[in-house]
Amino acid sequence: MSNVHRLKPDIHSLHGFFSKELEPALYIQSGDTVLYQTLDASWGIAKRSAPGAPRTKFTERKPGRQEKQFGHALVGPVHIEGAKAGDTLEIQINEIIPGSWGWTSAGGFPSYWNEKLGMRDVQEIMLDFELDAKTLIGRSQFGTFKYSVGLKPFMGIMGMPPGEEGQHTTFMPRPYGGNLDCKELTAGSTLYLPIPVDGGLFSTGDGHAVQGDGEVSGPARGNVPWRR
Prior knowledge:
Residues 204-228 are annotated as: Disordered. GO terms for molecular function: hydrolase activity, acting on carbon-nitrogen (but not peptide) bonds, in linear amides. By secondary structure, the protein is mostly beta strands. It has 1 helix and 18 strands.
């Protein structure tokens, strides 16, 4: 009989890199269900109090989980008993529930599109969203213009660490997962990944409330979701 586990974002589960040397936050059996609660990609834990105000972020790190350079806030890793390097990990995405708030931004930081559009050195523009998990509608306002958008939540990052030692960035996709940003991986999807290390050491994070065909602005519409 399979078991249901819960992982919340805390000093024992959060990390901003992939590494086979990370201590597992959870040990499970094949076929078990894990209910994850995640932060937003930039470690945010609460909606901004007002436009232009700083966001409250999770800053505490457990020894051994301090990233050497910025990485997405991931929850895990989860060790799957009996999983061996060379096996295939089947990830069934049963449900993704958006949090009550989200945000997106453009400009103000180095990226391919900001460089192309001359927006790297301008002030970052950030939009805050109110998210309704029941109706799957997100609402925001830019100046006097109010608008809404339908939500289609998915997890931007699902993956396992490389077989090599050390810290590995969360920003790139790899054959065994990572920053996939695949908007089709919604509830009801199944993802198959080759397992690079014994135990798998699966982590997830970077929840997206909705995304178009890529992240033209840099971030998509990030939020704090529950994922099962």
